[in-house]
Amino acid sequence: MSSPKWENPPQEYPLGQFVAEQVSQQARKTPHALALASDSENLTYGQLEDRANSLAKRLQSLGVGPDVLVGICLLRSPEMVVAALAVLKAGGAYLPMDPTHPVARLQFMLRDAQLRVLITQGQIADRLPSGECKVVILDEIEEAANSDPDPVSLAPENLAYAIYTSGSTGQAKAAQITYRGLLNLVQWHRRAFSVTAEDRASQVASFGFDAAVWEIWPYLTAGASIHFPDNDIRSSAVSLRDWLIEQRITLSFVPTAMAESLIGLDWPAQSSLRFLLTGADVLHRYPSSKLPFVLINNYGPTECTVVATSGAVLPDQAVDGRPTIGRPIENVQVHILDESRQPVPIGDVGEIYIGGASLARGYLNRPEQEGECFVPNPFSERQGDRLYRTGDLARILPDGQIEFIGRADEQVKIRGFRIEPNEIVTALNRHPGVRTSAVITRAENGGEKRLIAYIVSSGAKLTRDALQDHLQTLLPDYMLPAAFVQLDSMPLNSSGKVDRAALPAPTAANTLGDHVYIAPRTPVEKRVVAILAELLALEKVGVDDNFFFLGGHSLLGTQLIARVRNSFDVELSLRTVFDSPTAAELSDEIERLLSTERQIPAD
């Protein structure tokens, strides 16, 4: 079967020279060139090579070789790069462990991966029970002359690294990435963004997030320098912008939430930054034409070596929809399939399946989950070829770009309608007063789900009414959130994604209000607002208040109908409650149903 037109033609890359060899080549070529830079330490390529060689020699003495996993539990720093390079030089594969993670999670990784060797620092080692694992304290390794590690014979199918990723089962699992996938990522990146030794790249992602792989190896193999902002800088959009400018960074990756903040800031007309790369979450904003760099949106599960699709997001592409995730990178195939694993027509929504050079070997010690996620490739004639089933939904647009829709398991059904929360986020973020937003569902006591929107303001004063009016011009009523919670900043996890579990429940203190209260004007309205206030446990309800925005749902709707029946002796349908959800509208409908010859019951 021929490749679909939206795929790039295959690109041949040399697979004989592995990452560590390419870095050594740069060290021999320019030993005094800057390789790694932070506030506390700078390393030249010669110094990086010497330190990594000494550590690699020690690792080999502990039995590290091809397909042997070595844990690295270090903070973001030049030392973590030294350790990772040393593992590759020894022929092993590294497993990053973020020391800021809870101790229980780190303990789980040590046990689950059955690590034989762990590299860490003295102050971190005390938190980690090593068991039978041999612990190498990086602070105690001394550089020795002529300490080159023994030569290692590697194949593209050998492991380069493994990274734990959360799964739908609730238990983390480690994706095993081969040299074939890593080399394809490195060579594509260097080619796509014209990386040279003159480039200055940033290292922003946490080490346990696979984006860090992307921030390191394409640049070190090209002889470029990597710069580490401190944690305070990388967590503030304004500080990070200023740092990128001051450090003359030419290529930078930042998680999606940070990218949306950065492109909303003012930038000088002249800047060294050529490309701002982003990914990890759904991008909802287009960049301004005034930005001095190109925004690149990327998509890729950990199981597919960081990046599977990539594409520039240009200001003149701004339309009603959200930015695309581009097209597959070289030597990667993306298929959009239906439930029978057949290709869907262009424009139709299906599930993303990924194949090609980037595909992981599988999961570490998870044969059952591996069989569920890595499935036979029906579009390949090569025996044993597989596809990774992502669980993500997308569609192919007529121009061949891919529009990401969302997670198949995040779609929700409200009042019988299937809703994609990201569609609401896209509409919310078009409001000029909204910097960023998130939408989730929360179940009420009765089990009914409500849409809750979380808003970070761009500085403007926001009100519930203004946001509802804005959304009503873009979305049907059933997609309007029941509450808007204002936050100072969006909670993020270590991968830079919105931490939905950390989003607070709506309260009177954090929920946007400023709704103008209009008192009831007729006997019917007085009775209806009294019913609504009692039913919703509120002190008062205005005639223009929306039953569903106040917390109402279909179960309470049936109780509302019963109370209206008892009070007015008329029968409302549940559809009427949905279509006429304010006290004023309900009162109008009740008055219409009441016979003109009958008197409205007195208060």
Descriptive overview:
Among the domains are: 40-153, Rossmann fold (3-Layer(aba) Sandwich); 411-502, ANL, C-terminal domain (GMP Synthetase, Chain A, domain 3, 2-Layer Sandwich); 523-593, Non-ribosomal Peptide Synthetase Peptidyl Carrier Protein, Chain A (Orthogonal Bundle). Helices cover 28% and strands 22% of the residues. It has 17 helices and 26 strands. The strands form 7 sheets. A 5-stranded mixed sheet has the order 11-12-13-14-15. The longest helix has 17 residues, at 45-61. The protein is elongated. The termini are far apart.
Compact summary:
This protein is α/β, with parallel strands linked by helices.
Helix share of residues? 25-40%
- General form: elongated
Q: CA-to-CA gap between the ends?
A: 76 Å
> Judging by the overall fold, what is the CATH architecture of the domain at 40-153?
3-Layer(aba) Sandwich
CATH C-level category of the domain at 40-153: Alpha Beta
How many β-strand stretches? 26
Strand content: 15-25%
- The number of distinct helices, counting runs of at least 4 residues, comes to 17
> What is the SS-derived class?
alpha/beta
Described by strand count, sense and barrel closure, the largest sheet is:
5 strands, mixed
What number is the mean pLDDT?
87
* Computed CA radius of gyration, to the nearest angstrom: 28 Å
- CATH overall fold name of the domain at 40-153: Rossmann fold
Strand order of the largest sheet: 11-12-13-14-15
Low-confidence stretches are 1-6
